[in-house]
Amino acid sequence: MRIYDIIKKKRDNHQLTKEEIEFFVQKYSKNEIPDYQVSALLMAIYLNKMTKEETAYLTEAMMNSGDVIDLSKIDGIKVDKHSTGGVGDKTTIALAPLVAACNAPVAKMSGRGLGHTGGTLDKLESIPGFSIDMEVDDFIDAVNKHKIAVCGQTAKIAVADKKMYALRDVTATVDNISLIAASIMCKKLASGANSIVLDVKTGDGAFMKTLDDSFKLAKAMVDIGTEMGRETVGLITDMNEPLGHAVGNSLEVIEAIETLKGRGPSDLVELCETLGSYMLVLAKVADDFDDGVDKIRDAISSGRALEKLKVFIENQGGDKNIVDDYTLLPQASEIIPVKSEKSGYVSKIEAEEVGIAAMILGAGRETKEDELDLSVGIVLNKKVGDYVNKDDVLAYIHLNNMEKYKSSEEKLKNAYKITDEKVENSKLIYGVVTQDEIKKF
Asked: N or C: which end of the chain has fewer CB within 10 A?
C-alpha cells in the first residue's frame, strides 16, 4: 500500500477503505509519511468530503494512534460532556459537581484553551493549589470515591490528531465537518467514557457560525459515537452572545460557584439543567428528561452540588475556601466600568468581539505558548434585551496592565449594538440530535 495511491484515490473522489485510512494515520503518527503528502490528502478530503463510514474509520484510527484509557474499574455508566467552545463557557465547572451530586460518575479529561479565554483546565487552575495532573489509578479512585475528577489529557492520547490538527491549521483545511468531528470524537472516545453529551455551539462566538453547519457537525459526531458503541446525544446551543456575564478565568469560576449557590445567570442555569439532565438519563440515574431536570434543580437547592464542588476542589489539592471567599482567587488590580454612549435596547452583543477584548487583557491565548493572566477579563452588566440609558454601565473590565485598556475597551464597545427597538432574545437551545432523530426547536 502506498500513500500516493491513497491521495490519488481521494483526489478522484472515491471512498477510502478502513485499511487505507488506518495505513495513513498509523504511518503519519510514526513520522513515516511526510507532511507534504498528508497535506495533499487533507486537501483532497476537504474538497471531496468523507462519507459517514470514512469519518468513523478516521476517528477510530486516530483514537488508536495513542493511549486509550480504560475506565472499566469505575462503577456505573461514565458520561462525558464536550463543548465545541464559546465565550464565557464555564459550564463544566458548575455541571460536573451537579451531575456528580446526582450520583452519576463524572470522569472528565479536558484540554486547555486556545483563543478567547482559557479552557476548563486553565479556569480550574485559577483555584490556588488545584492540580489537573493525575495518574490514571488516582483518577479512577477519585471518581469511585467522590463521583468526580477532572484532569488533563495525556500527551499520548490521539497522537495522530495533534499532528494532523497542526497541519490543518496551516493548510486551510480546518473547517471540514468530517475532520472536525473526527478530531473531537477521537479524543472523547480515547478518554474512556461510556456515553457522551455534546454541546455544539452555534452563532457569532462559536466555531460553527450557522445553524445548518452546527446540526451537521452534531449529526456527524453522534453518528461516530453510535458507530463506536457509545450512546451519544448532541445539543445545539446559542453563542450569539456570551454565556452568562463573566468572561475570564477566575471570573468564570466565581460565576459557576454562584450558579451552584442558586444565583447563576438564567442562560447558564438553563444550559446546566439541560445538559445535566441528558447526562443523567444516559447514566441511567434519571428516568427521562423532566426527571433529570428535577434532580439537577434539587442538587442546587439542597446544597449538595456546592458541597460536591468543595470535595472535588479539595481532593485535587485546591483551596476549598474559595467557594465562600472569592478574594482567595486571582484578583485584577483595576476594575474599570465601560459606559454606554447612547440610550436604547441592547439588540446584540457580538460574542467573538467580547472574547477578543478579554484575550487582549491576557484572559486567552493567541498562540499556545502565551501565558494567561488568570485574574483578568470582562463582566457584562447588560445583556441582549436590556434597556440602557446613556452613561449606564455596559460592562466592567478587570485588568492589570493599563496599556491594554484602550484596545480592549474599543473592542468591547464595538461588540454592543444598541437600537431604538427591542429585539427578541435568541433561543438558548436550538435542537437535539440523537441516533434516531434530529429535533429542531
From this structure: C
Helix segments in 152-210, DSSP class H: 159-170, 177-190
Phi-psi region of 438 (alpha: psi -120 to 50; beta: other; left: phi over 0): beta
Q: Within this chain, do residues 319 and 216 fall inside the same structural domain, yes or no? A: yes
**Cα→Cα distances 159→89, 120, 223, 342, 347, Å:** 26, 21, 22, 52, 44
* Euclidean distance between CA atoms 386 and 418, whole angstroms: 10
User: 292 or 174, which is more confident?
Assistant: 292
Which tens digit of pLDDT belongs to each residue from 372-400? 999 999 999 999 999 999 999 999 999 99
Which grid coordinates belong to 23?
A: 495505513
CATH label of the domain that carries residue 413? 3.90.1170.30
Please classify residue 313 by burial: count the beta carbons closer than 10 Å to its beta carbon, then call 0-12 exposed, 13-18 middle and 19+ buried: buried
Catalytic residue among 168, 304, 308, 411: 168
pLDDT at 65: 93
Q: Are residues 207 and 256 in the same domain?
A: yes
187, 310, 320, 411: the catalytic one is: 187
Residue 423: other Cβ atoms inside 10 A: 13
Tell me how crowded residue 263 is: count the other CB atoms within 10 A of its CB: 11
Q: Among this protein's residues, is 245 annotated catalytic?
A: no
Whether 300 and 343 share a structural domain? no
Neighbouring-strand partners of residue 338 = 395
Alpha-carbon distances of 170 from 175, 190, 206, rounded to whole Å: 12, 25, 20
183 is catalytic: yes
- Rg value, the chain, Cα: 22
Average pLDDT, the chain: 93
Cα separation of the two ends of the chain: 48
Q: Which three cell numbers stand for residue 136?
A: 490514571
Nearest to 244 by CA among 348, 334, 351: 351
Residue 16 phi, psi (nearest 5) = -85, 145
146 in active site:
no
| Catalytic position from the list 29, 126, 183, 340 | 183
